[in-house]
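Risk register update: the risk of archive-format incompatibility is retired. Evidence:
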Amino acid sequence: MTSRDEAGATKESRVLSHCAHPNIIKVLLSFQSDALVMLCLEAAEHGCLNTHLKAMKTKTFEPKYVLFYMAELVSAGMF
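Archived output:
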């Protein structure tokens, strides 16, 4: 891991550990070795978004879902 990668991972871990938004998974613990940064995260109640996207029958969202997810992104960004 380069020093730049290490600094970025450390920064991401620190930022995530201070987030208290209901739609952001909490970092419970983090540690690193020479080659890896490990983040222990809270369990996602309904799984990860990627799993749900892969399970979709169509590859497009209905407008009501687009509006919902955009509102969630704006809410997280304003937080």
